[in-house]
């Protein structure tokens, strides 16, 4: 979700940020960059308030200019879940009943600031008769970074993941073997009588 923002230079040399689609979200910053960073937080606060007060969340309008706030995937998914609940007239209590969850679990899944698990969101959409589908796209101008410096000859390269896995397995085996030895030894810091 990409919400357009209006940046206006204020009387005190700060930049005022407003959202045409979400008038409740207002913030400012000393520079344009700082104002846009603050804008993300202001937008999330306003959208979270819409969810808590059971109000509709407006869709973002077409971007005008180059100033916008793009919400990350997790936050966007939570907002879309809330919209689907409103569309199907399903409240939090009903969603909790359908999922056999406690009400605080539903509250957390709808909280845009809580780091919910993807499987929880999938289950919530499923309870509404919907399916969550992810789509990965290329970002314009974000090609593979170019290497700096000379490349190492192929024969001298060490396969990182294989070595890492082998070392991890060896370390795990050592840890398991050491754990068996430690059970008979007294714990560190244990008092002797």
Describe the strand arrangement of the main beta sheet, using strand numbers. 2-3-4
User: Which structural class do you get from the secondary structure elements?
Assistant: mainly alpha
Basic shape: elongated
In percent, how helical is the residue content? 40-55%
Task: State the order of secondary-structure elements, H for helix, E for strand.
Answer: EEEEHEHHHHH
Mean pLDDT: 78
What is the CATH T-level topology of one domain? Answer: Double Stranded RNA Binding Domain
Give the count of helical stretches: 6
- Give the N-to-C terminal Cα separation: 66 Å
Radius of gyration: 25 Å
Number of strands: 5
CATH class of one domain: Alpha Beta
Overall CATH architecture of one domain: 2-Layer Sandwich
Description:
The chain is mainly α. It has a domain at 1-71: Double Stranded RNA Binding Domain (2-Layer Sandwich). 44% of the residues lie in helices and 9% in strands. β3 and β4 form a beta hairpin. It is elongated and about 55 Å long.
List the keywords.
single chain, 193 residues, mainly alpha, Double Stranded RNA Binding Domain, 3-stranded antiparallel β-sheet, 9% strand
């Amino acid at each position: 979700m990409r919400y357009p923002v209006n940046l206006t230079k204020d009387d005190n040399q700060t930049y005022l940020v407003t959202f045409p689609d979400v008038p409740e979200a207002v913030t400012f910053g000393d520079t344009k960059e700082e104002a846009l960073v603050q804008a993300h937080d202001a937008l999330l606060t306003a959208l979270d308030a819409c969810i808590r007060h059971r109000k509709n969340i407006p869709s973002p309008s077409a971007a005008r200019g180059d100033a916008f706030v793009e919400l990350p995937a997790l936050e966007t998914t939570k907002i879309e879940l809330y919209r689907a609940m409103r569309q199907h007239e399903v409240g939090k209590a009903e969603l909790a009943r359908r999922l056999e969850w406690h009400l605080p679990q539903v509250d957390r899944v709808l909280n845009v600031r809580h780091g919910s698990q993807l499987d929880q969101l999938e289950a919530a959409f499923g309870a509404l008769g919907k399916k969550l589908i992810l789509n990965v796209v290329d970002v314009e101008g974000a090609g593979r970074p170019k290497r700096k410096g000379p490349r190492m000859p192929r024969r001298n390269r060490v396969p990182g993941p294989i070595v890492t896995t082998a070392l991890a397995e060896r370390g795990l085996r050592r840890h398991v073997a050491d754990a068996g030895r430690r059970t008979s030894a007294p714990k560190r810091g244990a008092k002797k009588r």
